[in-house]
Amino acid sequence: MSLRHGLLGLLAEGPASGYDLARRFQEMLGAIYPAQHPKIYAELGRLSSEGLIAVESEGPRRRKAYRITDAGLAEIKAWLVEGEVDHTVRLQPLLRSVFFWLMEPDDLRRHLTEEQRFYAERAARCEAYAAARGSGDSPSVQSLRVTTEAAVRLYGALADWAEWARTVPPAGDR
Amino acid sequence: MSLRHGLLGLLAEGPASGYDLARRFQEMLGAIYPAQHPKIYAELGRLSSEGLIAVESEGPRRRKAYRITDAGLAEIKAWLVEGEVDHTVRLQPLLRSVFFWLMEPDDLRRHLTEEQRFYAERAARCEAYAAARGSGDSPSVQSLRVTTEAAVRLYGALADWAEWARTVPPAGDR
DNA sequence: AAGCGCATGTAAAGGGTTACATGATTGC
DNA sequence: GCAATCATGTAACCCTTTACATGCGCTT
Q: B139 and chain A: CB distance < 8 Å anywhere?
């Protein structure tokens, strides 16, 4: 249950609506922690009923902007320090790689080329995203750059791996 | 639904029981694709009723060993070539990093030190696991080494990132 | 007035974890 | 005989995604 704290954290930067938060989760956090709008609206409802966030304003098109409350700020800060870190990783592409020996060499090469392209593109996108808010110096932007750096390294590592895997196994083993 | 194909893939190496598969998922795939036994037994039941695997033998303690059928082998091979690759990544530690600016510098340093230690240890474990089956040359072992390489690179990248993040932001920003 | 993007939700289904439950065999 | 480990399963719960549904407001 970290979406809860993810929303609190984003709201700590300033008020936002469910729609805003969904968009940010999609374009900025989609690469590291995707979340869809139904989950977000549901969680916002729960957070609000618990007093961790509150409706700040109602706008056109029945837009509801939430702001974080003192209790909410205390909650996210406590979570960051005391909460258990969940190190779970679940990557289908790596599971697939366990079974590469079942693939025809040609298919495998194609697959790895495509994977490499995909990861390189993601890494580039994350880098571009970071560059876009280049000079911003607020604490939250600085944190975001740290996150982006992680994403770039992560996807870079996977891209390099895919390239390595494509060339290293001496063509057609099996 | 990739657990299904994960099980088929492991059974392609040879017959195994649910217990065996659960153990392998825990010790070898736990770092990249964890799965618990209830899910595994349930999926084995489904695969079996669909004729993709079959009970090979019943042993002591009502152990049931499954083997993959021709249909099952065809299914996993088709999946590897035609199946959509799911590139979803969901890493709580990276979500946390978006909110580093909400932490006290001391707490953050402690956190990053612990993270670095954790990832370095995981990388080392994966490396050790690969070294343990060092000389094996069968196709499936070779694939496993490719997977392990990915895991080592991945966790290595995260360890490096944590170390970098700890030192780079000039001590106490905010 | 038509169409797009904003904005919020509900419902159903799928995927996964945790806790509970049970029993057989082996080694001490 | 006792404990540990092998071995399988069920039930309840939680989390997440996909599909469905609706309506407002702005632009052309």
A: yes
